[in-house]
Amino acid sequence: MILRTSETQHGKDARIRYRGLLTAALRRIAADPQGRLTMDRSELLAGLRCLHIRHSRNESREAAVGDPVHVIFYRTLEPGLVEIVRVLHDRMEPGRHVVAVSDRF
Predict the structure, then answer these.
(1) Span 10-58, pLDDT tens digits
(2) CA 67, CA 40: separation in Å to the nearest integer?
(3) pTM of the predicted protein model
(4) Are 85 and 75 within 8 A, CB to CB?
(5) How many domains are contained in the chain?
(6) DSSP E strands: which ranges in the chain?
(7) Which structural domain, as residue segments, surrounds residue 31?
(8) CATH number of the domain encompassing residue 19
């Protein structure tokens, strides 16, 4: 949905750039889930952390994205295994969207 919206609003090239940025952010999380640019969000769900994708701009293989607006919420289930819980627009209230997901676990 994120990439479809990006393409609808900004065009195919923007979708490709945003996909590259999301991929770079996911790789950053996989490589260092406790990284210094991540934030502890355990108040929402035990072990939950987040990373705003803007912190991965320099790692994307695509041209720069001007104003990235998504935050990846995740938790480490075991060493080497990271679960992506949600990807939210940075204007969304995580407490309203992450809690609903955590109720299923």
Answers:
(1) 999 999 999 999 999 999 999 999 999 999 999 999 999 999 999 999 9
(2) 23
(3) 0.91
(4) yes
(5) 1
(6) 39-40, 48-52, 70-78, 81-89
(7) 2-102
(8) 3.30.2310.20
Long-range contacts of 19-22 (CB under 8 A, 24+ apart): 19/62, 20/60, 20/61, 20/62, 21/53, 21/56, 21/57, 21/60, 21/62, 21/65, 21/68, 22/53, 22/70, 22/72, 22/87
Tokens describing residue 12: 């195919």
Residue type at position 46: A
Is residue 11 left, alpha or beta, with left meaning phi > 0 and alpha meaning psi from -120 to 50?
left
Cβ pair 15, 5 in contact under 8 A: no
**Cβ neighbours around 97 below 10 Å, total:** 15
Q: Give the total residue count for the chain.
A: 105
